[in-house]
Amino acid sequence: MGLNFSFIKSLQRASPVAFGAIDMLKEELIYSSGHAEQLLGYSKEELKEHSKNYFESIVHPDDQEKSRQKIKQLMNSNVGEIVECTLRVRRSDNAYLTFYIRDIVFDRNDENSPVKYTTIVQDVSDIVALENELKEKVEIIRKVSYKNSHELRAPVANIIGLISLIKEENFKTEYNAKIFHHLEKTVSKLDRIIHEINNLSNI
Prior knowledge:
By secondary structure, the protein is of the alpha+beta class. The chain has 7 helices and 5 strands. It has helices at 5-14, 35-40, 44-50, 52-55, 64-75, 125-169, 174-201; strands spanning 18-23, 28-32, 83-90, 96-108, 114-123. 13% of the residues are buried. The mean pLDDT is 82.
């Protein structure tokens, strides 16, 4: 059974990703599945207007060069080659979403130069936010590990050294012996915990 256009349209509507087609001669959007408008909050007319010069007006300034490099890759791509990248794109409320984009040329001229390409866009903003949060947590652990290794372990080592020195000097009464015993056990336990933290942070 052949697949008609309405079936393909229903697949696009049910998909969590946005589909579009770009005219590389006009440098603007010629087709949108409608999901991009919903994500970004623009009307179809507004999105088409923003699409001029490959959406330069709404791509994050820091990602402009990455966007231009993506177009260059497409212009030089082989038949069937997919070009991927992530770009931050401005919504109608001026907040930015991070899009994972996959592009492929589907129409070429007689000289085999790209004329039109299909773009598939997925919102990965939540994933990027989680990744950034994870990086922050890892950095906190790294700092704690550094403090543990350089600022906490050194005083504990000094205390252990002093206890050993006191024991060697036999500077103990029966009363002090109990104190030194408990102190030695406590410091040894603390030293063991520090070692365990260091081992965990190096995994």
